[in-house]
Amino acid sequence: MTAPSRYFEDLEPGEFAESSALTVSEAEILEFARQYDPQYFHVDPDAAKNHPQFGQVVASGIHILALWRRCDHEITGDIRWVCGISWDNLRWNKPMRAGDTVRARALLLSKRPSASRPDRGVVVYRYALVNQDNDELFYCNSTNYVERRPLQAANTQ
């Protein structure tokens, strides 16, 4: 695996990317929920039929985040991330159901040099996971540190 190639200086606000599609099966929803979020409407298809809102098994919100992260690596994996700082305005808008086909979206909202760490910059992305109907299942704004291009490399380009 090669090191990511895009530094803070290579990123431009307004950049948009979307991952390829991933279809989610009921077996995946059940397996994830049984291990990490065993609420009845995530793990028991018969009991979930009586849920007042869903009427069937739906994926855990944590599962939605895990699938978003998996898809997001496809579209932002070339960035030299340092670490995440925060997620703001995190929302789950719609449930993810068995058979849904999902894609991650990433929109770079802003960037600025770090005030305290000259080796990195701060970027804010709006992330989402959408289904086959273009419905946003989840979204958030994510603030992250990204490596700045080393000074000697910047001087040679």
- Stated plainly, the CATH topology is called Thiol Ester Dehydrase, Chain A
How far apart the termini lie comes to: 24 Å
Runs in which pLDDT lies below 50 for 5 or more consecutive residues are none
User: How confident overall, as mean pLDDT?
Assistant: 94
In CATH, what is the homologous superfamily?
A: Hotdog Thioesterase
Outline = elongated
Describe this structure in words.
- This protein is α+β, with helices and mostly antiparallel strands and 157 residues long.
- The chain has a single domain (8-156), classed as Thiol Ester Dehydrase, Chain A (Roll), CATH 3.10.129.
- The protein contains five helices and six strands; from the N terminus they run E-E-H-H-H-H-E-E-E-E-H.
- Strands 1, 2, 3, 4, 5 and 6 form a six-stranded antiparallel β-sheet that branches.
- Strand 4 and strand 5 form a beta hairpin.
- It is elongated and about 60 Å long.
- It starts with 15 loop residues before the first strand and ends with a helix.
- The model has no long low-confidence stretch (mean pLDDT 94).
